[in-house]
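Note to self: the last two entries modelled the partners one at a time, which told us nothing about the interface. This time every component goes in together.
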Amino acid sequence: MSSQTPTSEYETYYVPEKSKLAVCATIGLVLSIYGAASIMNDMTFGDPNEPTSSWTIFLCGLFFFMATLFGWFRVTIRENIAGMNSAQLKKSYVLGMFWFIFSEVMFFFAFFGALFYVRNLVGPWLAGEGDGGRMNGLLWEGFEYAWPMMQTPQEAVGGAAAQTMANNGSFTSAHTSMAFADAHAWYKWLPLWNTIILLSSSVTCHIAHLGILDGNRTKFNIWLGITVALGMIFLGLQVAEYKEAYVHFGLTLNSGIYGSTFFMLTGFHGFHVFMGMTMLLIQLLRSVIGKQFTSDDHFGFEASSWYWHFVDVVWVFLFLFVYIL
Amino acid sequence: MCFNAKRLSKLALGPVLMLLSAFALANPEVNQVNMAPGVTEVGKEIYDLHMIILGICVVIGIGVFGVMFYSIFYHRKSRGVTPATFHESTQVEILWTVVPFFILIGMAIPATNTLLSIYDNDDAELDVLITGYQWKWKYEYLNENGENVSFFSNLRTPQSEIYNTEAKGEHYLLEVDNPLVLPAGKKVRFLITANDVIHSWWVPHLAVKKDAVPGFINEAWTRTDQTGIYRGQCAELCGKDHGFMPIVVNVVEPAEYDDWLAGKQAEQAEIAALMAQEFTLDELMERGEAVYQRNCLACHGANGEGGVGPAIAASAVATGDLSGHLEIGINGVPGTAMQAFGGQINDVEMAAVITYQRNAFGNNMGDLVQPIDVFNHKKGQ
Amino acid sequence: MGDHHHGPAKGLGRWLFTTNHKDIGTMYLWFSFAMFILGGAFAMIIRAELFQPGMQLVDPAFFNQMTTLHGLVMVFGAIMPSFVGLANWLIPMMIGAPDMALPRMNNWSFWILPPTFLLLASTLFMEGGAPAFGWTFYAPLSTTYAPPSVTFFIFSVHILGLSSIMGSINIIATVMNMRAPGMTYMKMPLFVWTWLITAFLLVAVMPVLAGAVTMMLMDIHFGTSFFSAAGGGDPVLFQHVFWFFGHPEVYIIILPAFGVVSQIIPAFSRKPLFGYDSMVYATSSIAFLSFIVWAHHMYTVGMPVAGELFFMYATMLIAVPTGVKVFNWVTTMWRGAMTFETPMLFCIGFLVLFTIGGFTGLMLSIAPADFQYHDSYFVVAHFHYVMVAGAVFSMTAAVYFWLPKWCGRMYNEAMGKTHFWISFIGFNLTFFPQHFVGLAGMPRRIPDYALQFADFNMMSSIGAFIYGASQILFLYNVIATIVAGKPVSDEKVWDGAEGLEWTVPTPAPYHTFETPPKVDPAHAHS
Ligand code: HEA
Ligand code: HEA
Ligand code: CUA
Ligand SMILES: [Cu+2]
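The predicted structure of the combined assembly is written out below.
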């Protein structure tokens, strides 16, 4: 939608009337956060026999929050359909989505930064190499550094009781790493398939975009449907892989820094895939059921697709630094 | 010498004397306003660097504030001036970008040199492993020269002074039971680590501050020809009693150092002998009380009423099965503030404090623990 | 499309459901003042305990909780929201926009703050007490050795981050998208510029903080070992991640303050800002440099010497663009026709004291010297000079400066000036002696200290009570102005003030610039 009123240099910017959305979203968010924190505290510090209401609070809060968000998006969509949104307002949404994705990039940056720091500096230091740790042999005698870290410093000295510092938990490493192992059985290596799946889902998503740009709703629906399905397959495979890691490889959250970084990065990525997939699914439903979106107005889809591409790019880095290198 | 100073301050002859004695060896001095030059070469370098940058900042400050106050005084509306309208002047702007840049380079050069000497940890004649614990320091003279001495260094100031029921002594909060003793004139390397959380080992006069990070060993070093007592404190927030873990370093002539070392070694042999001994309940209670006050009181309270840790009075552990009690005392509770004291206090002390906990605060269990029981428990695991 | 030519709704609903940038700005400002009082109350407990050697009022564990909450509440509750409030009020008026770009989200970013701080404050009453690991919450004191309330602390930080990110996205979208025709970037008032850059910093570093607390959460509850050497992690990793956020954070605090000062000094000097362009470039350089200096908080953790040198040089460089700013302000005053109303007094106070704080910052940046300064009261003195005399003074100046425009009434000038002088004296009495005790060897975050430090600490505590009390005067003055101040009707209020916000009627109507104003190129930026 370009500028419709040539007489005025600028269109009127739609400023919504007062709205209950923000306050409701606050209540939902704060309740679910409070519930989530309580659940974790019950788990770690609580008495297992004492009944608590943490789950109830969490679920009620979450439900209320989701319902509010649903309402929020509905209002926004209706305003757009009613033609209240000027081109300028739409640009605000574009900017909003762009900077939101940027903030997500920085969130992953923190974990990748942690990974690089640990792999390139801390590991060698613990093994007594480099400027940062030439005397560490006194503490972790026998620890040798390699990545993936298949023996934690704690194990190297003979377990938690034998370590010189206070016993702060037990970190037992995996017996098999997730890295690419067997060149002959490459086709059995899940991460490769996951990469292929996710990369192609970006392509299908783009084809769907071309579809709606052409005004071809069927093409849009089909390709978007394929994208969502690929996302689901990806998540399914990821679940299978986690199961494999836990059950067969002994790779868990407790497996020292290798397990920590592995699950943190892939876990948050998986969560983002789930979010992106849900967003795309909603766009699909909007198109199939509501017959929404036109060739020149489909921001909801565009925003979701940017998010999807972002999630995809993160995976490429993950694949490189977590699985391959 | 140290003894005399204490006597004098006990007499409380007033601030004049305080000041005089301060010149002699008190550090920090009363109402000291500047960094101490310290007693090491590096310390003096740092002090000089500090004075140079301070001086540069003061000069720039006088310049900037001088212009500003001149302007405030002369360019005020009440003097009837009309405002100028000038703005932007590329020359001036380049000037005040480039000149500070060169001033900074001037500062960076000596700073780099000093930093490099701080990091010159090689060729030490003595290595001391320093471990921070909540809330005390452990010093281990590493074995290279047959020293093999290790001990803990705890705050010596009594609770009564801290809680204002008794007058505070001259070295209030800056005194320990076992100071670190170092030989003068020798390069000493400190290997610094921690057992639980991050601490930081700081003695201003030696110009050493280095964080003690659990699981990592940091290096620092010092060398001074000046004998004396140098006081410092833990400089990284490490929990409740972060303010109560001082550091005292006693630098003595090498001969005196050797005597001290021999004394320490004899002491440790003595303890080894005590291990085999049987104690009576009274003996254990007396020793146990001292150990409790030094090691446990901070968390379990003066009357066993609890605090950071649970109450000992009527505690299920202290009035329950003996081996469970020993287990907690020796190996602690992982992941909590309750440390494994088995490696921190010797078996005699452990036997005494466990006995004390089981019989004090109304626990009256009547059983007593001998050092050999502790030894057996340790072996049994 | 709704008709906007009406006033605000009545009752509580106006505030709860509002989408109006002025209402939201007002709420932010009052909220931040409430948090200032709360954080100030914690500071008063700290200073009361430190009045004399010995433990008198609180126990050491509670003292640490006070230090922690004081830092957190002041930084996240008082300073940051106060500048967001200012941004909400002023940015749309300064660039000629009808409102913020995303008004409903704007309301949301505000409303999640109060319950979050309630949650944070409620940790004081939880088992094991409130977080007691300092506002920098270094692991493992904040993980393995933390009280259970740490989980609530972690989630509070998550929500605070969410609020800041949404607030910043809104500001970025507003500035990039809603400038009136003719209001090009290089014509924007400097306050808008500094906020645009601040918002960018916020979007970049708040997620990193979220990452840091998430790793803590995992270490505490799920057995990971990010910050534990036994599992191959490193406690110092936490510090790197934290300070990657933490250092830009201190510029997030100060850049909007720079913006405020750059508006007020020209107004009372009756002379345009000396170097507008160089101010913009200097602000950008500071923002850029802020990303590569974080480890200057960590000189003593045992970094390799190469890292130490890199961070030292990079940090020292910040003095150059900051110097450009200071010189610009002074040159703006040069040959102006100055008057010294309360806002100007606070700006001059800012200029002098911030520069002193900047100098001590430069001293801290010299790594070998920092080995002696680090974690001593010298650092405490440094950051209160830049944060209290920097951010709080400039915020105070801003309130006095724009209050007449906001409510159409003039504050009591004599009371304002009294407030300034008591603040100025009280502030210096509090924090100047802290340089001395710090250099003499007093560590920070201790509830009790050696006798040698007694006199200066007593001075410091007395100063703190004076400074704190002077804020009562401020509060009274503001309320009295709103309720019964002398009405002003002049659009300009201050004869030297420049900018679009001074072209709308006084008090500023509920809705401004529903049709974009014409930007007069001659008076583009102030
Ligand atoms: C508003 C917040 C703010 C601001 C603006 C600054 C500004 C600066 N800070 Fe500060 N700082 C903090 C808030 C802030 N700081 C906080 C909160 C902490 C402690 C955190 C904690 O541990 O809890 C801290 C700690 C801190 C440390 C760590 C100390 C330690 O723990 O050991 C260091 C070290 O480098 C440092 C340096 C600097 C520098 C170089 C600047 C520079 O930006 C200053 C630049 C300004 C000038 C230099 C003055 C003006 C310039 C001129 C007049 C030009 C000419 C001058 C020369 C060439 C000399 N700061
Ligand atoms: C911008 C942030 C900010 C601000 C404004 C302040 C303001 C003050 N700060 Fe603090 N401070 C920090 C940020 C800030 N601080 C941080 C980050 C730390 C580090 C924490 C850590 O180590 O983890 C710290 C630490 C810190 C310490 C060191 C604690 C320690 O190491 O143990 C001290 C000690 O003196 C102190 C004092 C003060 C004082 C006296 C004020 C005064 O300026 C406060 C004055 C304000 C008031 C007193 C309230 C005003 C209102 C009224 C009085 C009106 C009352 C009206 C009614 C009730 C109706 N602060
Ligand atoms: Cu140990 Cu502070
Ligand atoms: Cu910094």
